[in-house]
Amino acid sequence: MTTLLDRHDLVLADLDGTLYQGREAIPGAVDAVRAADDRGVRTLYVTNNASRSPGDVAAHLAELGYPAGADDVATSSQAAAALLAEQLPDGAKVLVVGTAALVAEISAVGLTPADTAAGATAVVQGLDPQLRYATLAEACIALRAGAVWVACNVDPTLPSERGPLPGNGSLVAVLRTATRLEPQVAGKPAPALMQTAARRLGSSAPLVVGDRLDTDIQGGRAAGIPTLLVLTGVSDAAELLAAPPEARPDYVGTDLGALDLDPANLALGPRPGWTVDVGPDGLVLSGSGDPLDALRALCVPHWAGGGGPARVRARGGDAEAALHALGLAAASGSATVAGADAVPRSS
User: Which position among 6, 9, 16, 250 bears the catalytic label?
Assistant: First the structure.
């Protein structure tokens, strides 16, 4: 049997929600990455977090059991530095809004980090938990004077054990409001991070794996790289059904164990045992089998009909059980689900 891994020479893996949750590795993920490594397929750990150095990220991954060194990590700070190096002469002064990790990446590409607007030809912005107003003010002055602006990422929030916290995108919004300018973006979902990571290792057939449609999957698609969505983190079945075209994955799997499965069984489309009928009131699922196959079968006809928030009804006990397993058995912000004989409700 041909597996998904057989088709690729590099796995570009997201971190939080794909490889670990908080301080714990996601079950089976370490074994999947090690098995890929044993077969000669390297995993490059790709993160939008620009506040930590590649070495720090690798140390955390290694503690969880992943085969990881600094060279196995690709950060949005590296991608941002590469974007600036393509546009600026050697030694150009770059005002850094970020941590020492971002300063180091700017220096590594031959540019000169700075903390004031005087003489700055560019501003690079990454998350800094200790950010001061004075730094934002200097960045505002530089941008108004015509400096190039690159944001490491525009994630509005940052996951934490206490819940979502303001992310770099929220801080980018401060400068956007003050200057009415838009930055170039290095991190996901922009393509630069994925493209830079794949190019670094000379990959000809990379695969992006992640748990978020709006960053991992959309970023992979923007970079022209096949994508695998794993349902171990943020995005769920309802969000997948409602996904816009630019955020729809090529494959869907339960977790990283999908790398060892037949890609034909992971692709979205008709699946044995399940029937999807399309009517004026939405989709009707009938049949029996793997609930995840039911989801794969639901996606394509829904998207062909225009996509958006989905209305799904079950015909039969097995179909109803599948919708329960997928979290589609009650109305939500992304999908409306009812029994096939229920009175239709507006979504």
Answer: 16
